[in-house]
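Run log, item B.
One chain of 111 residues. Sequence copied directly from the ordering sheet:
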Amino acid sequence: MIGQRIRRCVLAAIVCAPWYVVTLAHAQSDPLPSWNDGPAKATIVEFVAKVAKKGSPDFVPPAERIAVFDNDGSLWAEQPIYFQLLFALDRVQALAPQHPGWKEKEPFALL
């Protein structure tokens, strides 16, 4: 029983090891693997290489580096309001016919 379990674990490790190695090698070779190749990606990679290379005239010490993230739709839905609110408003409108009293009751009366 235990011997069979060990064999299964060893077999799973042997099967998964090549996938892990290939994935790890790809991640190390491409600094932004989720980005499409293009001028924006090339510019960012080039900039980071310049500011991270000691001895470069553009070198920035790690303590002085600042990372900034822009919520341009990559981290949030591109809507002026949160998409959870849009969902809630949509559900209120869908359920309103089943609740006629909502026409006079706030906050539903506003909708």
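Observations after the first pass:
- Residues 1-30 form one domain.
- The mean pLDDT is 81.
Flagged for discussion on Thursday.
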